[in-house]
Every structure is written in structure tokens, then in C-alpha cells.
């Protein structure tokens, strides 16, 4: 159980939702709408997302959570003998309780120091899994942006992955749980339209970007879009009150709220990282979005945990560990300043 008296850097979904979303939910509460996602709010949200990606006809579907999105996308896109290539640190590999494997699809993992897949890694995975029909056939490439360690793909990197996928007849899927922070990262040169152009299917995370719940699955590949709503229903993900999801994305994609909230989370992480680096500490991964992975002495970690909540991510040696600090749309500057002050006092 978390201690409400402590500042939390545990994750970016501990609070409820942005006030604009809460206000919209309250204001529209007694309006009558058609069920199962055929409501006016979902239609408007879909239109707004399509405007951002520059594709007027691309289907957009809403589900409640990220694991659901990954399960539905992968299980609906692949035949029973087909497998998914992923970085070994991929979220669907390490943080979803074997959900993809439970659908009957093998996850083929590739080592990665920075959380990213590369064309070379994909080529290696293909060559090492080519003894047909005795091995599962690689058919999909799974990436997340930002990655599990907070790093961000450049457009050049995504183009290279997209090209090899198309050359080798692989589907490219992008897990966008933190896509907002990836696209608004300081060094990002990619847009939502680029993501839509370069992938076959991707999803936009709302849960970690100010929504109460909800993810938007976008399907540029028309073949994958066929019958997709049937798969949503079959997996128990079709909400009768689909308006709940659509309304939130309508608010997030009106007036660029989604991108503003994501940029704020990144800015808070930048301030944390700069102060930690200035104090002389290193990082397990470069801070590019809203996740920081500093390497700190265990004694300092013990002191910081008296005031703040965060995950101890892994042991480095007997005296040092990696911690994870996650900033959010709701992180206040005072919270960051308090951590920096405590860091200085206990260093």
C-alpha cells in the first residue's frame, strides 16, 4: 500500500484524470448516447485523431487498457503459428504476465541495451528462427515509443525498422502507452502522422497522459482493420458505456491537451535528471522522456524513501542500485524541487 503522505514518483497514472476531462464527464453525465462506442463523443475523438495523422478513413477503436490493446492487436493479427519479435526489455515481454504467450503466440526477444529494436536485431531474429516448419514463424515486430527504459525512437530509426518490415513482409506494431511523451521529447523529430505512415497498427495511450482510463487503437493497415471490432468484443473489451473512453480522447485531442500534458511530464523529468547529474550521479539509461533511471548509493536511496515513493529498479552492486523516477501530467514543480533538495541534503 502506498503512503499518501509521501510524494510519489512511482508512475504516471496514480492520480485520477485531468480536470478538463473530469469536467466533461460531469457536464455530459446525463446526456443520452448510443452504446458500445457508437456515441457522438467517440466519433468526434476518432475524427480528431484522424486529423492529427492526416488519414481520413483510418479506423480508430477505444479500449480500456494497454494490456488489452496489446492482446487484441497481436492475437487478431497473427495466425496460430506466427510469432512476435521484440526487444528483450519490451513491455509486453516483461510487464504483462505472459499475456501474449497466453494467446498462443511466441515472443522472440532480441537483446537491447537502450530498449530499442534495430534492423540488425530484427534480421538476427529472422535468421535464428527460420527452420520452418519446426519453429514459430516471425510475422510481427513489436516496439514501444517511448521504450520501457524511457528512450525515444528518432524518425530515422523508425523508418529503418519500417523498411525492413516491409521488405521482409513483417507487420509493424507500436505500443504507444507513452507515445505522448515520446513525441514531445526534446530531441524528438517525429509526429503522430509519421507514426501512422510507418506502422501497420499502433495505439495512443490515454491512461498515462491524463485520462482516467483508455487507449486508442489506430489501424493504418486496412487488412488488419477488417473485423477488428469483433476481436474487441470477443476479448471482453467492448464497453457498453464506450462513451467514457471516447469523451476522454475528445478532450485530450481538443486544443492539443494531450501534447501539452505530455510535454509537462517531460519537462519535470528533465529538471530531475539535470539536478541528479549535477550532484554527480550517473544513469542506467539516458533520460529522454518522463522516466529517469539514476544510479544511487543504497544509503541515499534509504533516506530518499522516507520522503518519496519510487521503484528500486535493480541492483548494480552491493552499494548501489538503479531507481526509477516517473513524472506525470500532474507532477508539480514543488514535488520536483523537494526531491532535489532532499538529494542535496543527503548526498
Topology (SSEs and partners):
Layout: E1 7-8, H1 19-27, H2 40-53, E2 60-63, H3 66-77, E3 82-87, H4 91-94, H5 99-102, E4 107-110, H6 119-128, E5 137-144, H7 155-167, E6 171-175, H8 179-183, H9 192-198, E7 201-205, E8 215-218, H10 222-225, H11 228-234, H12 243-252, H13 257-278, E9 291-292, E10 295-297, H14 298-304, E11 308-309, E12 311-315, E13 320-326, H15 333-346
Parallel strand pairs: 1-11, 3-4, 3-5, 5-6, 6-7
Antiparallel strand pairs: 2-8, 7-8, 9-13, 10-13, 12-13
Helix pairs in contact: 1-12, 2-12, 13-15
Q: Can you tell me about this structure?
A:
With 347 residues, the protein is an alpha/beta fold. It has 15 helices and 13 strands. The strands form 3 sheets. The chain has a 7-stranded mixed beta sheet with strand order 2-8-7-6-5-3-4, with helices on both faces. Helix 2 crosses helix 12. It is globular. The mean pLDDT is 97.
Amino acid at each position: 500500500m502506498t503512503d499518501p503522505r509521501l510524494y510519489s514518483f512511482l508512475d504516471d497514472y496514480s492520480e485520477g484524470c485531468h480536470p478538463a476531462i473530469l469536467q466533461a464527464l460531469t457536464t455530459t453525465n446525463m446526456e443520452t448516447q448510443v452504446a458500445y462506442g457508437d456515441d457522438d463523443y467517440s466519433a468526434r475523438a476518432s475524427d480528431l485523431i484522424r486529423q492529427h495523422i492526416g488519414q481520413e478513413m483510418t479506423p480508430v477503436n477505444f479500449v480500456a487498457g494497454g494490456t488489452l490493446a496489446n492482446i487484441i492487436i497481436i492475437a487478431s493479427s497473427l495466425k496460430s503459428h506466427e510469432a512476435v519479435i521484440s526487444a528483450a526489455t519490451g513491455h509486453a515481454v516483461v510487464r504483462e504476465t505472459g499475456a501474449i504467450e497466453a494467446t498462443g503466440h511466441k515472443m522472440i526477444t532480441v537483446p537491447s541495451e537502450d530498449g530499442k529494436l534495430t534492423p540488425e536485431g530484427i534480421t538476427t531474429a529472422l535468421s535464428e528462427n527460420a527452420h520452418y516448419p519446426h519453429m514459430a514463424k516471425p510475422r510481427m515486430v513489436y516496439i514501444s515509443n517511448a521504450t520501457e527504459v524511457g528512450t525515444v525512437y528518432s524518425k530515422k530509426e523508425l523508418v529503418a525498422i519500417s523498411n525492413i518490415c516491409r521488405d521482409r513482409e513483417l507487420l509493424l506494431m507500436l505500443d504507444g502507452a507513452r507515445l505522448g511523451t515520446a513525441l514531445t521529447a526534446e530531441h524528438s523529430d517525429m509526429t503522430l502522422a509519421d507514426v501512422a505512415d510507418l506502422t501497420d497498427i499502433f495505439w495512443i495511450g490515454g491512461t498515462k497522459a491524463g485520462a482516467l482510463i483508455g487507449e486508442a487503437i489506430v489501424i493504418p493497415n486496412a487488412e488488419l482493420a477488417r473485423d477488428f471490432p469483433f476481436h474487441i468484443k470477443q476479448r471482453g473489451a467492448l464497453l457498453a458505456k464506450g462513451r467514457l473512453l471516447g469523451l476522454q480522447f475528445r478532450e485530450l485531442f481538443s486544443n492539443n491537451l494531450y501534447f501539452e500534458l505530455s510535454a509537462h511530464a517531460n519537462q519535470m523529468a528533465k529538471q530531475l535528471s539535470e539536478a541528479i547529474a549535477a550532484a554527480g550521479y550517473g544513469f542506467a539509461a539516458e533520460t529522454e522522456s518522463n522516466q529517469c533511471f539514476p544510479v544511487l548509493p543504497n544509503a541515499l536511496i534509504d533516506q530518499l524513501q522516507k520522503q518519496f515513493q519510487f521503484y528500486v529498479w535493480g541492483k548494480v552492486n552491493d552499494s548501489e542500485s538503479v531507481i526509477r523516477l516517473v513524472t506525470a501530467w500532474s507532477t508539480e514543480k514543488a514535488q520536483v524541487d523537494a526531491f532535489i533538495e532532499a538529494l542535496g541534503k543527503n548526498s
